Amino acid sequence: EAQVTQNPRYLITVTGKKLTVTCSQNMNHEYMSWYRQDPGLGLRQIYYSMNVEVTDKGDVPEGYKVSRKEKRNFPLILESPSPNQTSLYFCASSSLRPGGTQYFGPGTRLLVL
Amino acid sequence: SQQGEEDPQALSIQEGENATMNCSYKTSINNLQWYRQNSGRGLVHLILIRSNEREKHSGRLRVTLDTSKKSSSLLITASRAADTASYFCATAYNQAGTALIFGKGTTLSVSS
């Protein structure tokens, strides 16, 4: 089954404690992206990657890092989480064919105390 | 901001009625996509309309695009309680559709 998986699904942590949210897709997609969703603000893009070793900033990259060492994986790293990073995070992937649509993971709900 | 704007923010209807949601955007696009999100879950792609298309259908969904007005509408006909969800438009600024800008969404509630 074609899917995007994220782990963990729920996470409570404390300020400053480094964490990683993993994202994996099994569709051989070149493109992967991370979004955060906050009430009243919709989805905002954090980082995206067009292929292995190619990453770029989205609209709200501050406080986040990503890496793309393998095509299927695109982890999101919070080196020093802060309470304003409490949010619902989604990973997505798509092919680079014209008109490609994005497939979303189930989301990771993060609470930073 | 290039962000699209959906209208209305919330919509409540009875089963069997039609639901119409609108989306406006600010700059030229390659395509426009509609997504659905059930509460707290991931987004699911519904339909894509290219900038050179004016109308598209998929089952009970009908999407229109007016590039001169920079607006789109999503019509769900004969709504069901299972259609209750948030609906987002996303505008794509590149051909591959990877540069997506999402609106804030319309929350649809369908009561039986």
Notes on the protein architecture:
- The complex is a heterodimer of chains A (113) and B (112).
- With 113 residues, chain A is mainly β.
- Chain A is 0% helix and 50% strand.
- Chain A is globular.
- The relative contact order of chain A is 0.33.
- The mean pLDDT of chain A is 94.
- In chain B, the strands form 2 sheets. In chain B, strands 2, 4, 5, 9, 10 and 11 form a 6-stranded mixed β-sheet that branches. Chain B has a 5-stranded antiparallel β-sheet with strand order 1-3-8-7-6, with no helix packed on it.
- The mean pLDDT of chain B is 91.
- With 112 residues, chain B is mainly β.
- Chain B contains no helices and 11 strands.
- The termini of chain B are far apart.
- Helices cover 0% and strands 55% of the residues of chain B.
- Chain B has strands at residues 5-7, 10-14, 19-24, 31-37, 43-50, 55-58, 61-66, 71-76, 85-92, 100-102, 106-111.
- At the A-B interface, strand 4, strand 5, strand 9 and strand 10 of A face strand 4 and strand 5 of B.
Instruction: Compute the number of helices of chain A.
Output: 0
Alpha-carbon distance between the termini of chain A? 36 Å
User: How does the overall form of chain B come out from the CA principal axes?
Assistant: globular
The low-confidence parts of chain B are none
Question: Could you spell the SSE succession of chain A in H and E letters?
Answer: EEEEEEEEEEE
Counting DSSP E segments of at least 2 residues, the number of strands of chain B comes to 11
Task: Calculate the mean pLDDT score of chain A and round it.
Answer: 94
* Structural class by secondary-structure content of chain A: mainly beta
- Please bin the fraction of helical residues of chain A: under 10%
Percent of residues of chain B in helical segments?
A: under 10%
Q: What are the main properties of this structure?
A:
heterodimer, A: 113 residues, mainly beta, seven-stranded mixed beta sheet, four-stranded antiparallel beta sheet, 11 strands, 0% helix, globular, B: 112 residues, six-stranded mixed beta sheet, five-stranded antiparallel beta sheet, 55% strand
